[in-house]
Amino acid sequence: GAVVSQHPSWVICKSGTSVKIECRSLDFQATTMFWYRQFPKQSLMLMATSNEGSKATYEQGVEKDKFLINHASLTLSTLTVTSAHPEDSSFYICSARTRTGPNPYTQYFGPGTRLTVL
Amino acid sequence: AQKVTQAQTEISVVEKEDVTLDCVYETRDTTYYLFWYKQPPSGELVFLIRRNSFDEQNEISGRYSWNFQKSTSSFNFTITASQVVDSAVYFCALSGGGSNYKLTFGKGTLLTVNP
Description:
The complex is a heterodimer. Chain A is mainly beta. Chain A contains no helices and 11 strands. In chain A, strand 5 and strand 6 (about 55-60) form a beta hairpin. The model of chain A has no long low-confidence stretch (mean pLDDT about 95). By secondary structure, chain B is mostly beta strands. In chain B, strands 2, 5, 6, 10, 11 and 12 form a 6-stranded mixed beta sheet that branches. A 4-stranded antiparallel beta sheet of chain B has the order 3-9-8-7, with no helix packed on it. In chain B, strands 1-4 form a two-stranded antiparallel ribbon. Chain B has no helices and 12 strands. Chain B starts with a strand and ends with a strand. The interface of A and B includes residues 32, 97 and 110 of A.
């Protein structure tokens, strides 16, 4: 149980284009999902908290107009990197938080998306 | 503010050795949750364990065991008889109760198990 998928697993795009990453909780409903960014050999950096049916809450220093988050259903959140530039290249990871089950209030993570912007 | 410290940046052991990964946390919340995650080279974070602040019982799951001590604000993780497949980065994390549910991660410990 508590499986989270993420698509695509990797993407290469040209500078200036937009990229959409999907995060799905496959076997549970998640009112809250999270988006992280991870640089090589570093810990995870929280970008934003996504709540179903409401606007995402962004961490300080994260550009909300650049990283658009939509959480339209209890099982799907999307992150769109708009007008991507090489400095946006990174490993993006989503998580979904359980509310019930054997481990409530636990974040389960997707496999991540490696974005390379040329 | 919450803080998680994993003082060991890298650990290298030989297969079958026991290894303990340290985690020390700071929080002002009376209700909080502690977690351990494993991140193998593939990149996906794998949930290992969750502990709430009211449950100090140690836990054993196969070769894995966890020692939670509120008196020292520590939540250490021991792998017994390590295997090459245990090689990964291990993250300790902390979240508050109620609406304060963001995870605060430690910097991670890279464990390398050599054959």
